[in-house]
Automatic annotation (TrEMBL):
Catalysed reactions listed for this entry: alpha-D-glucose 1-phosphate = alpha-D-glucose 6-phosphate
TM stretches of this protein: none
Pfam families per record: PGM1_C_vert_fung, PGM_PMM_I, PGM_PMM_II, PGM_PMM_III
Keyword annotations: Carbohydrate metabolism, Glucose metabolism, Isomerase, Magnesium, Metal-binding, Phosphoprotein
Protein name according to UniProt: phosphoglucomutase (alpha-D-glucose-1,6-bisphosphate-dependent)
EC number: 5.4.2.2
GO biological process assignments: glucose metabolic process
Top-level taxon of origin: Bacteria
Length: 543
């Protein structure tokens, strides 16, 4: 057996989006497609020679074969060692942790996150840096450039590795270390949170439901919640990761996690509910009869993080993506710490965490995390909530009410319009951008526009600039709408419309968000001409 070199023609469109390269599974299964992208990753990071990587994915269809291909390529190109999750499985936060724990030269994660999996659904791949975080734009751009020039790749022509057996084997001269995907991650969680207090909560009869949506967090949630923390057996449902996620759309939001929503809003609702996504980095949390919006969740976690041992010394600072509500900014102000506003994409938090400027980060897109890894982390957020619930001894509903009474409430919602024809969506955004300068002063729905711009971000650590990150229209009084096109879809364009209105209280804190945001919704449609451009009058998903 030897190293073989295969000549190829570059593929068009291998351009990483918000979070790596995502395409239909069938696109990835074209001969040499995955290989060309992996080759571009290796080229962009100066080759695989002498390097150590972490490798794993969320177990979706094609995960197993892709892992074998990448192992053969790494072995053929001189990598020293690859740490792989058993069965080729690693949640995204667990992969990030393994990169950091083992000081590797980075890692390759196979996932299309919350997108459905299967032969006719989606697949994805991304590279994470030695700090455990998603590659920043400079690197993803370099990968994209490299994809355009790939002419050949080499691989070690060896047998498939048995990934189910723990331990170390060799492939050519490369070591393949197959590790338990859960153990190190669970230890990390145990080091951050008061497991005794949470155990006490469950012992006292606290009931929880965790919906793993047939995706990667099943074994993690069972191992931690049921085995280590003593939650009742069966607390975790849809706990077995399946290649097609059992037909579920593993996106933890009210639309796709509707089974959990129904249970939590029902008469028999447990005290706490949570769900995670395909690769385990997103979370949705609910109390009995109450949905916690991700922006509010971030704010509550920031305000109460000191109750968990891992954060007892306080937070260095917090960061949120621009479309995320400003609820956490109010907490930061009260705590006297810095608050940063970044573009959408977890990769933008990496520098701030590496520089020690922020401890907690979050996004409206159901992502919350801290500097314990460099990815957002679904189960981490759930455990921090549990720690807070145990420490405060109050219900989710009571905690939310107290939070809003103290800080005021940022009513918030996101409306998604999916699978719009790309040309129409682009035209709508271009048209809006062209009119931004004319908007201030206009009155819409009884509100006056105070400012309008296209968000640009200068990274305070490395000075890099990212432009065109979303159009924001701010009204007098601080209410705002934000529009941007998703960077994670695989079919046409998805328009995201983000709506926010601040209510200082004490009155008017208990409204239905869609009602509280009614004028903003109408104003957004009027200002952007959504129906005229796209033919859409109502969103497909509301979060
Ligand atoms: C992924 C990224 C997040 C991002 C989300 C939505 O989960 O890791 O950082 O917020 O996608 O991105 P999109 O471009 O689809 O709005
Ligand atoms: Zn994800």
């Amino acid at each position: 057996m030897a190293v073989r070199t295969i000549t190829v023609t570059p593929f068009e469109g291998q351009k990483p989006g918000t979070s790596g390269l995502r395409k239909k599974t069938r696109v990835f299964r074209q001969p040499h497609y995955l290989e060309c992208f992996v080759q571009a990753i290796f080229q962009a990071i100066g080759g695989a020679e002498g390097k150590t990587f972490v490798l794993g994915g969320d177990g979706r269809f094609h995960n197993d074969q892709a892992v074998q291909v990448i192992l053969r390529m790494a072995a053929g190109q001189g990598a020293v060692r690859v740490i792989v999750g058993q069965g080729g499985i690693l949640s995204t936060p667990a992969a990030s942790h393994l990169i950091r724990l083992n000081g590797t030269d980075g890692g390759i994660i196979l996932s299309a996150s919350h997108n459905p999996g299967g032969e006719e659904a989606d697949f994805g791949i991304k590279f994470n840096m030695p700090n455990g975080g998603p590659a920043p734009e400079a690197v993803t751009d370099a990968i994209h450039v490299a994809t355009q020039g790939v002419r050949a790749y080499s691989l070690f022509d060896g047998p498939a590795i048995d990934l189910d057996r723990l331990g170390t084997v060799t492939l050519g001269s490369m070591e393949v270390q197959i590790v338990d995907p859960v153990a190190d991650y669970a230890d990390l969680m145990e080091s951050l949170f008061d497991f005794d207090a949470i155990r006490g909560l469950f012992q006292a009869g606290f009931r929880m439901r965790f919906d793993a949506m047939c995706a990667v967090t099943g074994p993690y949630a069972k191992g931690i919640l049921e085995d280590r923390l003593g939650a009742a057996p069966g607390t975790v449902v849809h706990a077995t990761p399946l290649p097609d996620f059992g037909g579920m759309h593993p996106d933890p939001n009210p639309t796709w996690a509707h089974e959990l929503m129904a249970e939590m809003m029902g008469a028999e609702a447990p005290d706490f509910g949570a769900a995670s996504d395909g690769d385990g980095d997103r979370n949705m949390v609910l109390g009995r009869g109450i949905y916690v919006s991700p922006s509010d969740s971030l704010a509550v976690l920031a305000a109460n993080a000191n109750l968990a041992p891992g954060y007892a010394k306080g937070l260095a600072g917090v960061a949120r993506s621009m479309p995320t509500s400003a609820a956490v900014d109010r907490v930061a102000e009260a705590l006297g710490i810095e608050a940063f506003e970044t573009p959408t994409g977890w990769k933008f938090f990496g520098n701030l965490m590496d520089a020690g400027r922020v401890t907690l980060c979050g996004e409206e897109s159901f992502g919350t995390g801290s500097d314990h890894v460099r990815e957002k982390d679904g189960l981490w957020a759930v455990l921090l909530w549990l720690n807070i619930l145990a420490a405060r001894g109050e219900s989710v509903e009571a905690i939310m009410a107290a939070h809003w009474a103290r800080f005021g409430r940022n009513y918030y919602s996101r409306h998604d319009f999916e699978a719009i024809e790309t040309t129409k969506a682009d035209a709508m955004i271009a048209d809006l951008r062209g009119r931004l300068a004319d908007l201030p002063g206009l009155e819409v729905e009884g509100m006056t526009i105070a400012a309008a711009d296209d968000f640009a971000y200068t990274d305070p650590v490395d000075g890099s600039v990212s432009r065109n990150q979303g159009v924001r229209v701010v009204f007098e009084g601080g209410s705002r709408i934000v529009l941007r096109l998703s960077g994670t879809g695989t079919e046409g364009a998805t328009l995201r419309l983000y709506l926010e209105r601040y209510a200082p209280g004490p009155d008017g804190l208990g409204l239905d968000p869609q009602e509280a945001l009614g004028p903003m919704i109408r104003a957004a449609h009027e200002i952007a001409g959504i129906a005229g451009h796209t033919g859409r009058t109502a969103p497909d998903v509301v979060t």
